[in-house]
Design goal:
By secondary structure, the protein is an alpha+beta fold. It contains four helices and four strands; from the N terminus they run αβαβαββα. Strands 1-2 form a two-stranded parallel sheet. It has a two-stranded antiparallel sheet with strand order 3-4. The longest helix is centred in the middle third of the chain and has 13 residues.
Length: 145
């Protein structure tokens, strides 16, 4: 992560942050051993036992195998565009490049780089009787094909 992501995109407004619930001595030693220059944040422990933290618990994904590493790419809009528990640098590069280019993400068959988040807003007055109003938003006004 240090060389492949942090140093590669450091000048492109990409923030890389490590988060862990281990003690400060372990964090410091990890930074020295791995030559890390990106920030490592200490997570507040969420309780006794397995060593998870408050932030880790918020992003925990059950049944995903090993909990470490857990990588997220979050866009400037606050949406999560990538989650994985194995390092997949090539895929991460693709997502970062798309987000930095400011391109609209379109889904074409066989090219699902980013799965869009769909938010359904409650239809009214009654989706089963008569006319129904459905609320939606467009990222920008444009003609649809």
């Amino acid at each position: 992560m240090e060389v492949s992501i942090w140093q590669e995109y450091n000048d492109d407004a990409v923030a890389l942050v490590g988060i862990t619930a281990v003690n400060q001595g372990q964090i410091s030693q990890f930074v020295i051993d791995n030559g890390i220059t990106f920030p490592i944040l200490k997570d507040t422990r969420s309780g006794p036992g397995i060593g998870t933290g408050v932030i880790y618990d918020q992003y925990y994904i059950p049944n995903q195998g090993s909990p470490y590493p857990r990588d997220f790419i979050i866009g400037r809009d606050g949406n999560v565009y990538y989650v994985n528990n194995e390092i997949d640098t090539e895929y991460m590069f693709a997502v970062i490049e798309i987000l930095l280019a400011g391109e609209n993400v379109s889904i074409k068959p066989g090219q699902n780089i980013i799965i869009p988040e769909i938010q359904l807003v409650k239809a009214y007055p009654n989706p089963f009787n008569g006319p129904t109003n459905i609320i939606y938003t467009l990222s920008k006004p444009e003609m649809l094909p």
